[in-house]
Design goal:
The chain has 4 helices and 4 strands. The chain is α+β, with helices and mostly antiparallel strands.
Length: 183
């Protein structure tokens, strides 16, 4: 079975629409996940981390330089580059594999000073290790460059980012990733 991030997301949306029959949905999701990615036998499994908090505020007043981005897409790219830079050892270089271990979509918000004010997982295949890595990489990259004031809504800039995980646990961010490999 050949899967890429778009197929997994479309499959997830389709399965949510069929939620009336939970057993069928659960079995289909399990089969799809098992067919799309498997963990190599030699990969050690880390002990499950504590459940990450759904929101976070930073008390330390760190002054970050302002982003030069004037559009929401440009600022989102700045944030993705900051996350990749702060977590360089966990970022997969080159093109993402055609078969991904996990796709994790995180919604988060940054305040006027560039502080991470909240985050939550929006979509995932429930791989707790990759979910924890996505959230940890986001927290590790904060604080972010300050957004332009015209990008703020109620004092915050809210966005979503997609983490694309290869089998080795390293990731790329969809905003700055190259196109996936065909095979």
């Amino acid at each position: 079975m050949r899967c890429n991030a778009a197929v997994l997301i479309r499959m997830h949306d389709f399965l949510l629409a069929l939620a009336m029959n939970a057993r069928i949905v659960l079995l289909t999701v399990a089969a799809a996940i098992a067919g799309c990615a498997s963990r190599p036998a030699e990969t050690p499994v880390a002990a499950p981390a504590e459940k990450p908090a759904r929101s976070e505020t930073r008390a330390e007043p760190q002054h970050r330089p302002a982003s030069q981005a004037n559009t929401a897409d440009a600022y989102k790219r700045d944030l993705a580059l900051r996350i990749a830079e702060a977590n360089a050892s966990k970022v997969y270089p080159g093109r993402p594999h055609a078969l991904l271990r996990s796709v994790v979509v995180v919604r988060y918000a940054v305040d006027a000073q560039g502080n991470l004010v909240r985050h939550e997982i929006m979509r995932s295949n429930r791989d707790s290790e990759t979910e924890a890595t996505a959230l940890a990489s986001l927290r590790n990259a904060a604080p972010f460059p300050r957004p332009a004031s015209h990008l703020l809504r109620r004092g915050q800039f809210e966005l979503s980012e997609t983490w694309l995980f290869n089998n080795d646990g390293r990731f790329q961010l969809r905003t700055v990733a190259q196109p996936q490999m065909d095979r």
